[in-house]
Specification:
CATH topology: UDP-N-acetylmuramoyl-L-alanine:D-glutamate ligase
Shape: globular
Strand content: 15-25%
Distance between the termini: 11 Å
CATH architecture: 3-Layer(aba) Sandwich
Order of helices and strands: EEHEHEHEHEEEHHEHEHHEHHEEEHH
Helix content: 25-40%
Largest sheet: 9 strands, mixed
Strand order of the largest sheet: 6-5-1-9-10-11-12-13-14
Length: 345
């Protein structure tokens, strides 16, 4: 059983999306000019995907959005409700109701901003074998505004937190909100964690990412995201360790707490990169028949990490719990879990 932690110790901001998940043939991806393992924002040509999945495939609705996923996994492992507070924007519709119900059932303390004239965001999760491709229609999630964080009750929640986590995906929505949370974390000398999230963030949103990075104490990413960042910075992109070292060495607002980079590589070891060291943490390999859906493995890794980090556990315990959570989620559809958590330090 985890040590008891106080309510509201962790705040996350992100895009609350309802995942519409289905197994599809490869030509479905080709029809929409998508590749396996893509993570893209929907354009006009992608809009029919969502209705088509519901009508023609056995689509499943799952609570989604990267940060909300990570916080749900952290709550599952902590087995204590309302440790994590989540901010994001939804519409006033049935999908928002489903999202809120699923998030609260998982123990999250959600404080959605509600926009009446825009639908709740959705994400098509297209499963082809062990691959998953994501196409997100942010819709209402794209309408989050900083004034929601400035409402007194919400500001109190942000001020009250000890840990802050925001995805790179949120850079496409409202950078001023990210900077406000980052500045709060910095002023209070509390950890601010961020995720590179997807290659397109480094390719198209580098300016707001570079503005936030000096505040970031721990940066997460996978190999494709780290390589995209390196290429955008015109660094050599072949060596993940070297990319991690350069990430760690970038400008930092609080040099007394050097930045840490945690880079995942699928079934290869997780790299923990600090100022003067690189450590490897092996990943338990699963048999092909055990892999149901890799969607959410990265979110789950962060959720497992956060569940231990907010308890003040060592980085190696945090990473091992991240690996445990990712390994569990891969055996389930979407970013969902089953049974009681079985992580042992």
């Amino acid at each position: 059983m985890c040590d008891r932690v106080r309510e509201g110790i962790l705040v996350g901001c992100g895009n609350p999306l309802l995942d519409i998940s289905a197994v599809v043939p490869l030509n479905f991806l080709q029809k929409y000019s998508m590749n396996e393992d893509d993570a893209i924002l929907a354009e006009d040509r992608h809009m029919p995907i969502y209705g088509e999945l519901v009508e023609d495939y056995q689509a499943e609705f799952l609570a989604g959005g990267s940060v909300q996923n990570s916080l749900r996994i952290a709550q599952w492992i902590l087995r204590q409700p309302r440790v994590a507070v989540f901010f994001g924007c939804v519409g006033e519709d049935r999908y928002a109701g489903i999202l809120k119900e699923k998030a609260q059932a998982a123990g999250l303390d959600v404080h959605y901003q509600v926009k009446k004239d825009v639908p709740t965001g959705t994400c098509a999760v297209l499963i082809t074998g062990t691959h998953r491709s994501l196409c997100a229609n942010l819709a209402a999630a794209n309408n989050f505004t900083i004034d929601h964080l400035e409402e007194p009750s919400n500001k109190a929640l942000v001020d009250n937190a000890q840990y802050y986590y925001i995805s790179g995906f949120f850079l496409t929505v409202n950078p001023p909100s990210i900077m406000q949370v980052a500045a709060t974390a910095h002023a209070k000398q509390r950890p601010f964690l961020m995720n590179l999230s997807a290659p397109f963030i480094s390719q198209f949103y580098m300016a707001p990412l570079l503005a936030a990075l000096p505040y970031v104490d721990i940066i997460f990413g996978n190999e494709a995201e780290a390589q995209a960042f390196a290429e955008a910075q015109q660094w050599p992109s072949g060596d993940l360790r070297e990319i991690g070292k350069r990430l760690v060495a970038m400008e930092k607002k609080n040099p007394a707490r050097p930045r840490i980079a945690i880079l995942t590589q699928g079934c290869d070891p997780v790299l923990l990169i600090q100022q003067d060291s690189v450590q490897e943490f092996p990943v338990t390999k699963l048999a092909v028949h055990e892999i149901v859906d890799t969607n959410g493995a990265g979110d789950a890794f962060v959720g497992g990490f956060l569940s231990q980090f907010v308890q003040g556990k060592s980085l190696d315990v945090c990473i091992r719990c991240g690996n445990y959570a990712a390994g569990h989620i891969i055996k389930n559809p979407g970013c969902t879990y089953s049974g009681e958590p079985e992580f042992v330090e």
